[in-house]
Inverse folding.
């Protein structure tokens, strides 16, 4: 950091200090921790009733309350053309019993200041100890004698439809729908969507059938937490649940959804968006109970699981793009998922995705640091300790051990297992569960402002607010100029035809950094269709490309590359300092698609299609200087999209030249600054 | 359905007051069963109030500091400042390098957060109990000599702008608090929301920061509240070691004395937003928090929307099906907040229709004393809530600080229930009749943009 910058920063620093007093504690450094306290996990007692109901009891006398949680453990259900009945089930089940109307039931629950709710996967009740008998009466009345009134289903359906309509405006909800569609597909329980149509298809018989099929003690767990001991719990459980009859419950299995083959962009055009909701996501073969979970939690903590994580520090603290950037690696029953997400302001959408991709790549290729892994373990240890403040936690431990076949000492040895996770383990997990090259980049935002910047990451597929594929939006602003006009204006902007044609000896030397190594780029333009580009790294020539009339050559690390016709055509496009003057010679058809906003500026979008494919140029609508060029090339490895952004235009004797070029080739990004520009220096001798 | 409920619940965040403050205010019922919270309270020579509560059931400790400064203390040309400052206070101090504060807490196995309301700013860490010193050191560093540099300021400016975009601009119904406050208050600083304005954030300078810090971030304007697995005597020694050297502030702390003139006319307006379902917001002026009538409003809130059998729920969501979700929430503020009725219309229901339904429910409370049994039910709900309110050390620390700062009486954590007990059925009828009248309210209709007539301009962010 140079001296001037140092002084400037010191001047800008505002130090709020005060007169020094005698200190009894040395505050110049962080204090030492005391001896580590013992973490007492506590116990859940369990017993099973004859009908198969598993009961878990956690005694905690701190508060005079009891929480009663009944949960059903079943396979995920595919609702199909009646999607929605699972989410409406609870409201209908709670709408009164054969003994009490809904109104009476609601009144009775509120009268004792209790909570009572029911859903497709169970029931929950909570009350003061002194009211717990009444709570149990009400809860089991609902459990055994639900009324299932049809008018409640109608109400629920109407509310469901209102909710669906509302979600269409919420960018996070929209993103969720697209993610589900892409990751799981609409014939998988995780991917199916509730629509107005499916919700309306649900009949009261469907609700009743669900209850009759799945509300069975042999797949249920009863968790009692609070002011109760095992003896009291046994008494309660037998009194209220012995009568519950067991029954056969169907099991289901599903095919794994197809994994994402190649990274693509899924874009939902939300015109009112001032932020883009970004989610980079794909499925992973991680299911609940997997032994990788502890390592994965360390990995996720480092990557994006806290405010000290890489994603948070990069996108929020370093770049200020967002209020928060996070990652999530979740195990689920059928198949897991990886997700990295943030909401960022429109203008930095593409930059944010670039940073995400950089982080997702880096964590796979290099070991995390000692500091990172130690901090992650400390953080997760603390989190584990804090979770024990709630007596519910111990109950969940016992439940998980039973449900997912975990070893009995899983949680007792959790901290030890956590401590044993190595950097190599983290790297292995990163490579197993994070795939930036096979991910869905789901973005909900203002397409006019962000689409062009996203093209570099992969093919863009548009989606609507329901998560269904749709067409790309038409450019809202139609252009008043023809392609020829735009090209002519560009030529004028860079100096005019005469000046351009007069310069037949242009040399530009630029520097950039690739994977922390400096590289040098030397470009020479001679007569029209005379062009040479040489890339040097550490004194060695890495590549050389030359066009001289009808002669083409490309050499990389000493090897001559055979050039196909499409390659020659691509080189031809580069072989003119101002190609817009020579479009006829270069070949192809040019079309103005309209006006879009690029990097906050309105720009004419001109698409040119020639024998090598299509590329799109963007010209600033005010100045007509070229802002960007996006081209897609077919390679044996697949389509490759390259974006070049031009900036720092400077005047060289009347000729305007961009001295900043940012080349984005997806995984590689080059920020090239041209420090040396020489006109008529004799550099064209290279073409002799 | 869950989605819409969460929108309504998120209004609790919108209103700016901390969730636990709302809980604390609404939970207290005199009850032998609720565990009594014991604590030690004292004041240092420099004015710092200290409250210590020991709870060794889990080996963790919550360290928190409440600074009695919120958006109402801001310069009208520098709104958003108190909240912006909350971000800056994580940037570091003379002895804590930029970016290290949160790293240290995480590395110690802790977690942290902060929030700013119209009335105060609150910081807390939850740490393993052997890391108490770390929490004290960090909070004392922040109070003694926080450092702010250009890089930190620029970054947090951008971050806070993104926070506003996330919570307000890009969020359906996100601007409700802003739009309500600016119409409800004409003179009082409550007229702007804690998040403030982007332009003011851009204009803020270093001199602004210095002045704000020296005025408000001083021990005589702060309360240090600690709850968890601590040894009281050892903790006192540590507090001495880290906090006694911090000098008392020398600037007189400005507390706005502007009285919002009594509202005499209803204010009505329409906001067109990116939504599909209309929403109706009715915001009535409330008396200052801590008054008898303010507690009556808390009870009224439970009566109206405190459970499935509550009046508005039953009538509007269940029977008439005019609303998918409805809430009656008191936004309690030091100088008098707002009682907000908020409903999201069901499909096919017009805003006018929903409002008529909301008014009709209010009328039932105004016209007749609520039946004894119903009143008992409401009190039982409040009592039961109170028992559970002091179950986490973080919320105990916050409640102790709130009660001490707002009312000068930390003991309210145990006794505030008496205030609720004093509310009678007659009080409910009276406050409904006195305050829930058109001349005392702002009514906003949030309508979809598709309903906007071509000629009028849409209300957007400023």
């Amino acid at each position: 950091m140079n001296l001037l910058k140092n002084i400037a920063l010191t001047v800008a620093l505002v130090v709020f200090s005060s007169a020094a007093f005698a200190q009894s504690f040395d505050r110049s450094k962080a204090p030492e921790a005391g001896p580590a306290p013992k973490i007492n996990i506590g116990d859940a007692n369990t017993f099973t009733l004859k009908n198969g109901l598993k009961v878990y009891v956690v005694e905690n006398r701190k508060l005079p309350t009891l929480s009663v949680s009944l949960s059903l453990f079943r396979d995920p259900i595919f609702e199909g053309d009646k999607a929605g009945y699972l989410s409406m089930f609870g409201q209908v089940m709670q709408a009164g019993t054969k003994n009490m109307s809904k109104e009476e039931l609601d009144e009775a629950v509120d009268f004792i200041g209790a909570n009572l709710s029911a859903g497709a996967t169970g029931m929950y009740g909570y009350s003061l100890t002194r009211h717990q008998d009444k709570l149990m009466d009400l809860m089991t009345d609902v459990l055994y004698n639900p009324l299932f009134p049809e008018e409640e289903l109608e109400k629920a359906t109407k509310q469901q439809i209102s909710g669906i309509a509302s979600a269409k405006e919420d960018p996070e909800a929209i993103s969720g729908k697209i993610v589900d569609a892409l990751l799981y597909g609409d014939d998988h329980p995780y991917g199916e969507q509730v629509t107005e149509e499916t919700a309306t298809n649900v009949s009261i018989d469907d609700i009743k059938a669900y209850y009759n099929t799945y509300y069975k003690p042999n797949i249920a767990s009863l968790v009692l937490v609070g002011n109760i001991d095992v003896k009291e719990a046994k008494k309660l459980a037998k009194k209220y649940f012995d009568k519950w009859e067991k029954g056969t419950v169907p099991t289901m299995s599903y095919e794994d959804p197809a994994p994402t083959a190649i990274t693509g962009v899924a874009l939902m055009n939300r015109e009112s968006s001032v932020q883009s909701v970004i989610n980079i996501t794909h499925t992973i073969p991680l299911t609940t109970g997997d032994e990788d979970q502890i390592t994965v939690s360390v990995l996720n903590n480092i990557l994006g699981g806290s405010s000290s994580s890489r994603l948070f520090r990069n996108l929020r603290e370093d770049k200020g793009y967002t209020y928060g950037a996070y990652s999530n690696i979740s195990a689920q029953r059928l198949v897991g998922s990886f997700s990295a997400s943030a909401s960022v302001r429109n203008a930095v959408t593409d930059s944010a995705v670039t940073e995400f991709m950089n982080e997702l790549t880096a964590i796979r290729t290099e070991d995390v640091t000692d500091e990172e892994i130690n901090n992650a373990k400390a953080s997760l240890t603390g989190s584990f300790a804090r979770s024990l403040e709630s007596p519910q936690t111990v109950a969940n431990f016992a439940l998980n051990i039973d449900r997912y076949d975990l070893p009995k000492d899983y949680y007792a040895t959790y901290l030890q297992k956590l401590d044993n996770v190595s950097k190599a383990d983290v790297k292995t997990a990163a490579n197993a569960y994070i795939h930036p090259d096979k991910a869905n980049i789901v973005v909900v935002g203002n397409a006019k402002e962000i689409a062009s910047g996203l093209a570099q990451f992969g093919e863009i597929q548009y989606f609507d607010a329901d998560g269904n594929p749709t067409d790309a939006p038409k450019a809202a602003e139609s252009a008043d100029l023809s392609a020829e006009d735009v090209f002519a204006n560009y030529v004028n902007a860079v100096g005019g035809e005469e000046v351009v044609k007069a310069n037949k000896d242009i040399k530009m030397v630029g520097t950039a950094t690739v994977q922390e190594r400096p590289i040098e780029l030397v470009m020479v333009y001679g007569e029209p269709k005379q062009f040479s580009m040489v890339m040097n790294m550490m004194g060695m020539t890495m590549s050389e490309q030359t066009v001289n009339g009808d002669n083409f050559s490309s050499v990389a690390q000493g090897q001559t590359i055979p050039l196909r016709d499409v390659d020659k055509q691509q080189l031809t496009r580069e072989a003119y300092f101002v190609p817009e003057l020579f479009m006829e010679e270069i070949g192809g058809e040019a079309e103005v698609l309209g006006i879009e906003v690029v990097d906050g500026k309105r720009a004419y979008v001109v698409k040119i299609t020639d024998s090598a494919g299509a590329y799109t140029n963007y010209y600033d609508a005010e100045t007509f200087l070229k802002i960007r060029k996006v081209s897609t090339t077919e390679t044996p490895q697949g389509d490759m999209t390259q974006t070049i952004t031009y900036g720092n235009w400077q005047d060289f004797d009347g000729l305007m030249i961009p001295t900043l070029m940012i080349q984005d080739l997806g995984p590689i990004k080059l920020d090239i600054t041209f420090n040396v520009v020489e006109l008529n220096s004799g550099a064209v001798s290279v073409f002799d | 359905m869950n989605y819409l409920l969460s929108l309504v619940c998120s209004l609790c965040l919108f209103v700016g007051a901390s969730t636990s403050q709302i809980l604390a205010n609404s939970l207290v019922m005199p009850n032998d069963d609720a565990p009594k919270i014991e604590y030690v309270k004292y004041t240092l020579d420099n004015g710092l109030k200290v409250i210590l509560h020991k709870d060794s059931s889990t080996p963790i400790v919550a360290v928190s500091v409440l600074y009695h400064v919120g958006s109402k203390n801001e310069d009208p040309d520098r709104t958003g400042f108190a909240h912006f400052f909350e971000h800056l206070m994580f940037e570091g101090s003379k002895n804590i390098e930029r970016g290290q504060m949160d790293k240290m807490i995480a590395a110690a196995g802790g977690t942290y957060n902060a929030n700013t309301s119209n009335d105060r700013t609150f910081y807390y860490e939850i740490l393993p109990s052997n890391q108490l010193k770390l929490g004290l050191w960090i909070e004392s560093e922040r109070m003694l000599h926080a450092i702010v540099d250009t890089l930190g300021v620029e970054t947090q400016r951008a971050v806070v702008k993104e926070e506003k975009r996330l919570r307000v601009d890009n969020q359906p119904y996100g601007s409700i608090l802003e739009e309500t406050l600016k119409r409800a208050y004409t003179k009082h600083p409550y007229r702007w929301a804690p998040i403030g304005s982007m332009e003011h954030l851009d204009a803020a300078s270093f001199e602004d920061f210095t002045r704000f810090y020296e005025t408000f971030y001083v021990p005589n304007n702060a309360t240090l509240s600690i709850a968890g697995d601590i040894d009281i005597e050892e903790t006192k020694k540590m507090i001495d070691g880290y906090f006694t050297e911090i000098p008392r502030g020398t600037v007189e702390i400005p507390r706005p004395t502007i009285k919002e003139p009594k509202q005499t006319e209803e204010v009505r307006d329409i906001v067109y937003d990116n939504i599909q379902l209309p929403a109706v917001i009715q915001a009535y002026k409330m008396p200052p928090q801590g008054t008898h009538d303010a507690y009556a409003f808390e009870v009224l809130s439970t009566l109206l929307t405190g459970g499935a059998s509550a009046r508005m729920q039953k009538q509007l969501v269940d029977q008439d099906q005019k609303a998918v979700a409805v809430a009656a929430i008191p936004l309690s503020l030091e100088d008098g907040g707002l009682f907000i009725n908020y409903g999201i219309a069901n499909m096919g229901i017009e805003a006018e229709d929903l409002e008529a339904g909301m008014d009709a429910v209010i009328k039932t409370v105004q016209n007749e004393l609520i039946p004894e049994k119903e009143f008992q039910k409401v009190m039982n709900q409040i009592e039961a809530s109170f028992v559970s309110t002091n179950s986490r050390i973080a919320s105990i620390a916050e409640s102790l600080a709130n009660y001490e700062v707002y009312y000068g009486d930390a003991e309210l954590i145990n006794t505030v229930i008496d205030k609720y007990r004093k509310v009678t059925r007659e009080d409910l009828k009276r406050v409904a009749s006195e305050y829930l009248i058109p001349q005392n309210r702002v009514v906003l209709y949030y309508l979809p943009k598709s309903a906007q007539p071509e000629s009028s301009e849409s209300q957007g962010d400023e």
Q: What stands out?
A: The two ends of chain A are 44 Å apart (CA to CA).
